[in-house]
Input
Amino acid sequence: MQWLSVCSLLVLLSVLSRSQAQNQICTIFTEAKEDGFKSLILVGLAQNLPDSTLGDLVPLIAEALAMGVKCCSDTPPEDCERDVADLFQSAVCSSETLVEKNDLKMCCEKTAAERTHCFVDHKAKIPRDLSLKAELPAADQCEDFKKDHKAFVGRFIFKFSKSNPMLPPHVVLAIAKGYGKVLTTCCGEAEAQTCFDTKKATFQHAVAKRVAELKSLCIVHKKYGDRVVKAKKLVQYSQKMPQASFQEMGGMVDKIVATVAPCCSGDMVTCMKERKTLVDEVCADESVLSRAAGLSACCKEDAVHRGSCVEAMKPDPKPDGLSEHYDVHADIAAVCQTFTKTPDLAMGKLVYEISVRHPESSQQVILRFAKEAEQALLQCCDMEDHAECVKTALAGSDVDKKITDETDYYKKMCAAEAAVSDDSFEKSMMVYYTRIMPQASFDQLHMVSETVHDVLHACCKDEPGHFVLPCAEEKLTDAIDATCDDYDPSSINPHIAHCCNQSYSMRRHCILAIQPDTEFTPPELDASSFHMGPELCTKDSKDLLLSGKKLLYGVVRHKTTITEDHLKTISTKYHTMKEKCCAAEDQAACFTEEAPKLVSESAELVKPTFTPR
Output
């Protein structure tokens, strides 16, 4: 590849300033330092050229590194200031090998903006895989890790980037850093494999959580637009930085929202330019930094990791003198005056004032109250007696009570989850969701019940009491966003479709209000649907859980109003059959005889007590 083409690879860094007059490549080379520079190039190459091998990319990275040095010399080449997106695409398209290997011929036949859109669309269609499978045993990984730490992390970045082309580079590098920490900890222990298995599960959960958050934000932006995204981010960062003023927070949130569209589209050039500008401007504001301890600490991180640090930071202490509660009625005249002229400004101020006082709240609770307050202001602000009108309109709506009630709800869920085994709780979620959407496939409901269990298990353990609400409701809302987006809600039932089209903050409440679907006509219940055989005698707890959930799914679909006593009876009979047949000399013969009996007895319990019209 020619020297000019090497320069073009740096489009993949995408963390440059907006100024075309600036030596862009030197800027990132200086800020990211050599290792960060190479890592960013590797992420971008692997994400855009997934059919290339690591061996294909290594020489390109080395040449790009050399180019970075030249761009920071006393006489940098003119190409250091050219538009990096156009340079990258030109470079790729000049290589027949890269074009053929990565199926980019159609894109390379286009020019300018059309070519850029084609590259972005091409990347968006690359299959994604969040799992970290097919790794070597811990001992072998530790040997490779100790032998050459940088090369090991590089291979991880390459594989993970190829499998996750839409993740922003800073997220990929934060994940790689986390995986490196797992190995650093475990490779120094005698029982490296045990340590690795435990910490890997925790690490994968953290990865899934971060990706779910990003996916949900993109879904929300696509469905509800900038206004809802802005409201979410205003709550989130006002809670994290209560020392910042409303004006400061508003400016920051506007910049955050500007990054969402390009980042969600896969346009990482614009995405990372906007993120870089945002973080630079925020970290340059000494006034805010002097009051926001968490932000100040994150701004000391290197350029590659500052953004991820800001997203993960915990809430700072509230400012001295801040009242415990925000009373919207106390200055209703001023509120209405602002609302009449600039409604979004007035609503933003209200959301900010509540958020800085309630870091223990979820975004959704605050936004639900804000929606009610907005309706009251729309109804009352033009009236002469607007103060009394607003009081009457919001008489049954108290944000502090909403937060308390929702927190109590999740504490009860935590108590329920703690009172039974993990498998029992997950099965209870399977029953609950099968009752309200029996039209959904087993795989869909298996995923939903597993997600709800995982969310509550994590939040009840990691954020007990005070912060269980924001942890649980945020993650459950993310799961609802993904479910409504991944599947056609109308193909499930009208109730789910209705809830998926509700306002953002009301989706979960809407789903919780759905009653068991009594109009569903299930397929015939027969033994062939459940595949109960000697495989139930395995000690693999996951297989046993899956089998139990399949039985519950089949039974509940046939009678969504089935009582808990009848479910308990079926469960008892299932375990009795399993114990009997697993102890039998001929397990297969036993299951062949006993499984149809269980299904037949279950069918009797779910027979309708009336004849459908």
Q: What stands out?
A: Residues 1-21 have pLDDT under 50 and may be disordered. Residues 323-397 form a domain with the Serum Albumin; Chain A, Domain 1 fold (CATH 1.10.246.10).
